[in-house]
Amino acid sequence: MIRPIAITPGEPSGIGPDIVLQWCARGTDRPYFVIANLAMLQQRAHILGVTLELCAIGDRPLTELPFRVGTLWVLDVPMAQAVMPGTLAVANAAYVLATLDLATDLALAGQISALVTGPVQKSIISDAGLSFSGHTEYLRDRCGVEEVVMMLATEGLRVALVTTHLPLSAVSAAIDQPTLKRVTRILYRALIEDFGCTAPRILVSGLNPHAGEGGHLGREEIDTIIPALAALAQEGIATQGPLPADTLFQPHYLERADAVLAMYHDQGLPVLKYRGFGNAVNITLGLPFIRTSVDHGTALDLAGTGQADLGSLDVALQSALDMAEQREQQHA
Ligand SMILES: NC(=O)c1ccc[n+]([C@@H]2O[C@H](COP(=O)([O-])OP(=O)(O)OC[C@H]3O[C@@H](n4cnc5c(N)ncnc54)[C@H](O)[C@@H]3O)[C@@H](O)[C@H]2O)c1
Ligand SMILES: N[C@H](C(=O)O)[C@H](O)COP(=O)(O)O
């Protein structure tokens, strides 16, 4: 039996609480529990007509929780003000981070085997004056690790990113050889350890149109990407690239690859989401614990309606479970 898996539903006025409640109401006895405000979940369950026994964990040891169909265990986190689905409240931004902090502490203490996160509204957390650009960066900093990698995966395609949540104008400066090498090493190791690839095949995109067109459309490929990939090859990490990003996402390349490493968020993720939105998982590679997430945002327009699709949460929960079981078997 693996250690429990924590779920943080994320922004309380978004669809995060809805999808968590609706998914759990389908019936599961796997060791998932939720870190959130109990009263908010009870209110949302009532709005949605979800029948689920919501039980406060209180002081009970997580390892002794009786996980059973029809019951959802909740680690109750105080919240500043009552929630209206679809309406953001700056006052509740600190609560969202408190759920992540608690989950991180439990993960670092070895009390949970994985963390599955629901969507957060980055803007409201920033509006509250709290420093936050995404779970990926927040968990990296909170765990004190230098580098992590955002990778989204759907059936037949994995896309990892060199840079994550930063303005497009800052992307080029953020891509240097040390960063590119660290990111590629993390991706390579994860493909072996968590995804069963014996000799990972990674396609690396260029940054500029046509991968720089021999330096006529930008020099990042020549000055940074090619030398970094050459150095990685010397370490035994073979990659293919830099390839023009507009043509690398085609079967000819993808059927012989385990992952694509894109240079920035909107170079890689639109392709991934076009292929698998609603059925993809976001995984943070390089953390000291497993973290998976949904592929979508807070969808405020759907909160409290019961219309949100549960597909990505399903994939995120299953991926976390699979990775946790595999890691615990490896260490048994
Ligand atoms: N994992 C995360 O924490 C995460 C991921 C992506 C975006 N976000 C955040 O979410 C906020 C809103 O972002 P956005 O509007 O770009 O994206 P969004 O995913 O919230 O919404 C885009 C569109 O997809 C629909 N949609 C999203 N999830 C759905 C679901 N489960 N079922 C059915 N339809 C769904 C929405 O109704 C909307 O029409 C932003 O603050 C963004 O940063 C968070
Ligand atoms: N970049 C992610 C996506 O588009 O799906 C999303 O913003 C979530 O990122 P974090 O996991 O860092 O919050």
UniProtKB/TrEMBL annotation:
<keyword id="KW-0664">Pyridoxine biosynthesis</keyword>
<comment type="pathway">
    <text>Cofactor biosynthesis; pyridoxine 5'-phosphate biosynthesis; pyridoxine 5'-phosphate from D-erythrose 4-phosphate: step 4/5.</text>
</comment>
<feature type="binding site">
    <location>
        <position position="136"/>
    </location>
    <ligand>
        <name>substrate</name>
    </ligand>
</feature>
<dbReference type="GO" id="GO:0008270">
    <property type="term" value="F:zinc ion binding"/>
</dbReference>
<keyword id="KW-0560">Oxidoreductase</keyword>
<keyword id="KW-0520">NAD</keyword>
<dbReference type="GO" id="GO:0005737">
    <property type="term" value="C:cytoplasm"/>
</dbReference>
<feature type="binding site">
    <location>
        <position position="291"/>
    </location>
    <ligand>
        <name>substrate</name>
    </ligand>
</feature>
<comment type="function">
    <text>Catalyzes the NAD(P)-dependent oxidation of 4-(phosphooxy)-L-threonine (HTP) into 2-amino-3-oxo-4-(phosphooxy)butyric acid which spontaneously decarboxylates to form 3-amino-2-oxopropyl phosphate (AHAP).</text>
</comment>
<dbReference type="GO" id="GO:0042823">
    <property type="term" value="P:pyridoxal phosphate biosynthetic process"/>
</dbReference>
<dbReference type="GO" id="GO:0000287">
    <property type="term" value="F:magnesium ion binding"/>
</dbReference>
<keyword id="KW-0460">Magnesium</keyword>
<dbReference type="InterPro" id="IPR037510">
    <property type="entry name" value="PdxA"/>
</dbReference>
<dbReference type="Pfam" id="PF04166">
    <property type="entry name" value="PdxA"/>
</dbReference>
<dbReference type="InterPro" id="IPR005255">
    <property type="entry name" value="PdxA_fam"/>
</dbReference>
<keyword id="KW-0521">NADP</keyword>
<feature type="binding site">
    <location>
        <position position="165"/>
    </location>
    <ligand>
        <name>a divalent metal cation</name>
    </ligand>
</feature>
<keyword id="KW-0963">Cytoplasm</keyword>
<comment type="similarity">
    <text>Belongs to the PdxA family.</text>
</comment>
<dbReference type="GO" id="GO:0050897">
    <property type="term" value="F:cobalt ion binding"/>
</dbReference>
<protein>
    <recommendedName>
        <fullName>4-hydroxythreonine-4-phosphate dehydrogenase</fullName>
        <ecNumber>1.1.1.262</ecNumber>
    </recommendedName>
</protein>
<dbReference type="GO" id="GO:0050570">
    <property type="term" value="F:4-hydroxythreonine-4-phosphate dehydrogenase activity"/>
</dbReference>
<keyword id="KW-0862">Zinc</keyword>
<dbReference type="GO" id="GO:0051287">
    <property type="term" value="F:NAD binding"/>
</dbReference>
<feature type="binding site">
    <location>
        <position position="210"/>
    </location>
    <ligand>
        <name>a divalent metal cation</name>
    </ligand>
</feature>
<feature type="binding site">
    <location>
        <position position="135"/>
    </location>
    <ligand>
        <name>substrate</name>
    </ligand>
</feature>
<dbReference type="GO" id="GO:0008615">
    <property type="term" value="P:pyridoxine biosynthetic process"/>
</dbReference>
<feature type="binding site">
    <location>
        <position position="282"/>
    </location>
    <ligand>
        <name>substrate</name>
    </ligand>
</feature>
<keyword id="KW-0170">Cobalt</keyword>
<keyword id="KW-0479">Metal-binding</keyword>
<feature type="binding site">
    <location>
        <position position="265"/>
    </location>
    <ligand>
        <name>a divalent metal cation</name>
    </ligand>
</feature>
<feature type="binding site">
    <location>
        <position position="273"/>
    </location>
    <ligand>
        <name>substrate</name>
    </ligand>
</feature>
<comment type="subunit">
    <text>Homodimer.</text>
</comment>
